Amino acid sequence: MTVPTGRRERKKAITRQKIADAALRLFLERGYDTVGIRDVAAEADVAVTTLFSHFPSKEALVFEQDEDFEQRLTRAVTDRAPHEPLIPALRREIHALVRHCTADSAAPIWHMIDASPALRKYEESMRLRHADALATAIAADPDLSRTTTACRAIARFVIDAYSLAREAADPKAAVDEIFRMIEAAWEVTCPSADTTGTAGP
């Protein structure tokens, strides 16, 4: 989670984390569908209105690092070293994110998500939102010079790489395999690339 700087921001971050921890604890103990918003608020010792000021929905409680995930991906684009190629920077970040989500401690959470149609639907909409944010960051970089369609397609591929690798028997190998395809697709979208199959001038 992004570290807040001001006292008020730190207090809000602590409350948010307390709510998220309480929700996850109840969801794993009792089952996602059997726990209500009021149950979570009571467990976290906050008002329901306070809970909703931090999380817009019950589903969002499960994906409390949603914003951090999105920021890490966009920063992989915006904060990479001058002239560093885009795809290796994104591959490095996806590797780190996949390592986190495939840790043994994360397994019960993903089992819960996979078993819930509501959570799967929320995760799908979240992936699309992350892809849009990543595509915007790529398109805004003047050094990358790709069409809007190319930026959106590559961003979708990167987000899907995370999901596919999470489910693979060897997540690290899966990330590398998928990113070889992403690298090839990125090169094809270069304005100077010859896509006709014939030699250029």
UniProtKB/TrEMBL annotation:
Top-rank lineage group of the source organism: Bacteria
For this UniProt record, the keywords arranged alphabetically read as follows: DNA-binding, Transcription, Transcription regulation
Q: Which sequence positions fall in the DNA-binding region?
A: 36-55
- SUPFAM superfamilies xref list: Homeodomain-like (SSF46689)
- For this protein, the parts annotated as crossing the membrane are none
Q: Which residues form the HTH tetR-type domain?
A: 13-73
Q: Please report the name of this protein according to its UniProt entry.
A: TetR/AcrR family transcriptional regulator
Give the organism the record lists. Answer: Streptomyces olivaceiscleroticus
